[in-house]
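Quick one:
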Amino acid sequence: MTGFTLHKLHRSLGAEVRGLDLAQPLDPTTRDALIEAWLEHMVLLFRGQELSPETQRRFCENFGPLGERSRKADDRPEGAGVEHEMLVTNVRRDGVPIGSLPDGEMYFHHDKCYVPVPDWGTMLYAMVVTDTGGHTLFANMCEALETLPDDLRSTIDGRRVLHMYKYHPTERVELEDDIGRHDHCWQPAVVTHPRSGRRALYINELMTALIDGYSEEESCGIRDALMAHVRSANVIYEHKWKKGDLVMWDNWCTMHARTDFPPEQTRMLRRYTIRGQALTA
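Output:
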């Protein structure tokens, strides 16, 4: 007995988990059942949760060691979170953001794809949400790969891609920049999920700067064609946040994006990640 039920959110990915209070410790049977559900559905939603930083952190630790922050502490906004915690908010103090990723739209991306050991999972908890916008889009990159046309698949078969990040939601790193100033890493264009064994497309519009064997212009064209396929393949779930939502997603087989929202409305969420491992094709 696991004490929860699953309710699909979208035909391609995502399930709502009902019947659990995440502020309470998980028994091993329930934890293992959640991992099985997570591997199957890629995105899990828990509604109506009341979580402190400590209880959210404890829940996250059920699935593995916590992931590290990429940005050095002295580069983060004041109040943006300590150690493993990130505050995602547009709240400002004296005109300065107190958190990370404060405003508007964010392009599709995989969390931490730009480091040698990408985080497995991300857990985001909603404390204050906007009346409109600020939704999160999740794309099933296993099904995106499975449905790729043969001619497009052939352009990435066996290739590596260079992921880079400027810590801005809609700004890509240009290769004429000194890329050493930005976090960057070569990864397989298609990865094999270390736990499920499924293969997933590992290219995204925000952080993928170059495909091995192609020029920057050619790489951008291929990336844009891949993103157009993802958008047309009915593999995207759009999550409309409610206060008390906790969403956990698998970064190895999904990518995600954020829709724009009114700047005068407050948005505040708290994030932890689960440490992953190096990925292979």
